[in-house]
Amino acid sequence: MEYPKKLIEVALPLDDINFHSVKEKNPFLKNHPRALHLWWARRPLAAARAILFAQLVNDPGGQRGWGHKKGQTKSEAQQKRNKLFQIIRELVKWENINNEEVIELARKEISKSWIETCNLTNDHTEEFPFIWDPFSGGGSIPLEAKRFGLPVLASDLNPVSVLIPKQARLD
Ligand SMILES: C[S@@+](CC[C@H](N)C(=O)[O-])C[C@H]1O[C@@H](n2cnc3c(N)ncnc32)[C@H](O)[C@@H]1O
């Protein structure tokens, strides 16, 4: 079956993701969900947001097994990739956490990639598949998936962890 490579398989602006993930550890940051409960292995929201986005958007370079996209040079693909990087660079900033313009741009790219993938695999585009985090812990991944407006399922062995997303109104 032909299906596209995802951006995360090709490249990521790691320096930016890391920089903003570290900044998020500032204990004086207001309205961070860790204030609900200090979960020991909570992943930074910036990293969860960036990784989800990079897993959901297609890499512009070409499809798996096809080689490069016909009619597109490597440098054209890189330019498109840079645009996706720029979205990630804005997405990871704490000050953009409620910036609808930035989040909407990301949602549009996710939706565009989903339609492109469905067209390749002859799937229906109507229902986006659930994002399931079976080890949701402090809830970073489900929270960020919700921010993108995606259908989400979260579960965990630990009842405290089950309570955190409920408190954050993720249920
Ligand atoms: C590393 S933490 C996840 C952290 C989470 N990604 C976050 O950002 O907060 C791993 C989680 O897996 C859960 N866990 C471990 N074994 C499990 C199992 N067999 N079934 C379900 N959850 C499990 C633990 O309770 C813990 O919350």
Explain what you see.
There is one protein chain. The protein is mainly alpha-helical and 171 residues long. The chain has one domain (4-124). 46% of the residues lie in helices and 10% in strands. The chain has helices at residues 14-23, 45-56, 74-91, 100-121, 140-147, 159-167, and strands spanning 4-6, 58-63, 67-68, 131-133, 152-154. The strands form 2 sheets. Strands 1-2-3 form a 3-stranded antiparallel sheet. It has a two-stranded parallel sheet with strand order 4-5. Strand 2 (58-63) and strand 3 form a beta hairpin. Helix 2 packs across helix 5 and helix 3 (74-91) crosses helix 4. The chain is globular and about 50 Å long. Bound molecules: S-adenosylmethionine. S-adenosylmethionine is lined by residues 39, 41-43, 134-138, 140-141, 156-158, 161.
- Main β sheet profile: 3 strands, antiparallel
Tell me which ligands are bound. S-adenosylmethionine
Structural Rg: 17 Å
The CA-CA distance between the termini, in Å, is 35 Å
| Percentage of β-strand residues | 5-15%
Structural class of the secondary elements? mainly alpha
Extended strand count? 5
Strand arrangement in the largest pleated sheet: 1-2-3
Per DSSP, the total helix count is 6
Shape: globular
Could you report the average pLDDT, rounded to the nearest whole number?
A: 88
Q: Fraction of residues in helices?
A: 40-55%
SSE arrangement, N to C: EHHEEHHEHEH
When the domains are counted, the total is: 1
| Multimer state | single chain
Low-confidence stretches: none
